[in-house]
Amino acid sequence: MDRVVAAAPQLANIVPYDPKYLPAQAYLSANENPRDVDGDIRAQIEEEVRAVALNRYPDPLANDLRDLIAHANGLDRDWVLVGNGGDELLFDTALAWGGPGRTFLNMPPTFSVYAANARLTNTPIMDIPRTHGFAIDEQRVLEALADPDNNITFTIVASPNNPTGLMAPPEFLERVLAATDALVMVDEAYFEFSRQTMRPHLEQHKNLVILRTFSKAFSLAGVRIGYILAHPEVIREYLKVRQPYSVDAVSQAIARVVFRNRSAFEPRIQEIISERGRLTEALRTLPGVIPHPSESNWVLFEVPDAPQAWRFLYDRGILVRDFSTAPGLEGTLRVTVGTPAQNDAFLSALRTFVLDPDDRFRSEKGSGNHA
Length: 371
Ligand SMILES: *Cc1c(COP(=O)(O)O)cnc(C)c1O
Prior knowledge:
alpha/beta, four-stranded antiparallel sheet, about 15% strand, binds pyridoxal-5'-phosphate
């Protein structure tokens, strides 16, 4: 056959996810931890992985890891579910709480994966855009949730919000949780940097789900481990839709070692928090550059001629994320907080771009990515 029947209709206008990862010297585009797992923890990982039976299916629920996470959060194991990265659990959320005739409430600009999953599962999306300074339009959100005609079955609030940077106010989240029985996922992928969590509200609200990941603070983006905290009845619904063996045995072993050693990551987290402040202050001094406040491990900033600024940085080996054509984010770039040396290189290049426009054209074939 030289043709194939059309794929499911909801795929027609979907563009496959593209992280826009390109070869660079400083990867400051994906909110990863700039430092890899190393030293003694790396050695422990090697030992733990050596003991994994590769011919056996993994424990589908990763119960050993689950127990470690549950214990750290003062919960029983049935309040925890581990996934193949937070992304799998986001998809499972749309599978279990979305679908035709049900509505997902979204607050753009936010993590694009939420809306993509809704489209894949034929879930209608109600968008309530953020207002000035990317604040949530709290009044409109509460009104929309209160109107039964909207049939909102779930919402996801990233806190801090990627890519804008600030937390959802906890008082607002409490009002949402009390006002609706819709599932409310609070995406805390960056909570180790914000130091704030909705965990204390978990027992009072059966509709609260907290999402976390090992990809950012714990340097494991390559390993694919995330988890949710939620009421056991909610976890049970996730168990029905998830792929039973999505979390492989090697990833489970690595994550166990890292989680047991999590206090060793604290100095790096503190460094990122302090570098975030330094980056923000330095960006503020550049003419025309407006950094947005961040409680996470990146800084979103407005810069004149943002696409050219992105190119200029890239030509000098520095990969940041270009949001300049994304709806609601026009003119912005997002820089992930790197090591102090990477942050210096980024600042120095951006300073040249902003202060020395002639130099933009002179040294484009410099020693960067095209060398
Ligand atoms: C990174 C991220 C996640 C989870 O990423 P995984 O690598 O799949 O665990 C979830 N939500 C947001 C907002 C993120 O930025």
